[in-house]
Specification:
Number of domains: 2
Strand order of the largest sheet: 4-5-3-8
CATH superfamily of the largest domain: Reverse transcriptase/Diguanylate cyclase domain
Structural class: alpha+beta
Radius of gyration: 31 Å
Length: about 290
């Protein structure tokens, strides 16, 4: 074997060894990257699942608290008379709520459970305005629910905001008194609450105006059916007050979240849609 042949064999062997080394390194790195990507995806899925589970628990507690707030807003005397049973029911269904309080005139007068929280009785929120400036009203609660739904899911949210306005409410107050007006508002609110799901939200946001937040909306046709049925059912169910039958008249508008609208845009669109119905009804009557 000549020196040239030996040299070629050595060069070929070195080239083969280098090639084999590079191939094995590439294969090993590819395997490591594949395992890393798989573990990364698994970790991402676990984090996403944990996040969704956590959000579901938190929002369940928010809805339960909102339900209690709605009862207090609509039937304050009923809430006072049945405070312990209502609060106990909420606590039994909640995961993280540890105590609830009711503060007429911004002074805590009702607590559940009372044991261990006695010192909070009589606390006046106005004495700490800087700390409790953001105590939620019904209107603010509605805004928080909308904000929560807008940011809750990774995919575009799908829910609807429904604006319900009571027509000729001032006439009821003027003709029959403010007590009659209050009873009519309760009458309408109770009917709305009976027609929504546990995951939906109802709140009074003005003198004669309500907001309904409907989650898990399938399509616009379903919202239209809901609005039409709600209007027909309530307007066909009069309030009997001191021998008088008061027939409600409603104007209803809605907007649907599509992933691009802000909370302000949703509320504004629902408000415009409601006023369009109100104008159309006035035109029909004229």
């Amino acid at each position: 074997m000549t020196k040239r042949t030996k040299l070629l064999i050595i060069i070929a062997s070195c080239a083969y060894a280098i090639a084999w080394y590079l191939v094995t390194q590439y294969a090993a790195q590819a395997y490591v990257n594949s395992r890393f990507d798989a573990q990364k995806e698994q970790a991402r899925q676990q984090v996403s699942l944990a996040k969704s589970t956590f959000e579901a628990i938190i929002f369940k507690d928010i809805y339960l608290a909102d339900s209690l707030a709605t009862v207090v807003n609509i039937e304050p005397q009923f809430a006072i008379d049945n405070w312990e049973s209502i609060s106990a029911k909420l606590m039994s269904k909640s995961t993280h709520v540890r105590n609830v309080a009711m503060a007429p005139n911004d002074i805590i007068q009702f607590l559940y459970p009372l044991a261990g929280n006695e010192q909070a009785l009589g606390f006046e929120y106005q004495s700490r305005p800087q700390q409790f400036a953001s105590v939620m009203t019904a209107k603010r609660t509605g805004s928080l629910v909308i904000d929560g739904l807008l940011t809750r899911w990774g995919q575009p949210p799908r829910f609807a905001v429904v604006n319900v306005d009571l027509n000729r409410f001032k006439k009821v107050n003027d003709d029959l008194g403010h007590d009659a007006g209050d009873e009519l508002l309760k009458h309408i609110a109770n009917h709305m609450l009976s027609r929504v799901r546990a995951t939906d939200f109802v709140a009074r946001i003005g003198g004669d105006e309500f907001i309904i937040v409907l989650g898990r909306v399938r399509d616009e046709a379903a919202i239209k059916r809901f609005v039409e049925k709600l209007k027909i059912d309530i307007e066909r169910t009069p309030l009997e007050y001191q021998g008088e039958l008061i027939y409600p008249s409603l104007s209803i508008g809605y907007s649907i979240a599509d992933g691009n609208k802000t909370r302000e845009a949703l509320l504004s669109e629902a408000d415009r849609d409601m006023y369009a119905m109100k104008l159309a009804q006035r035109t029909e009557l004229s």
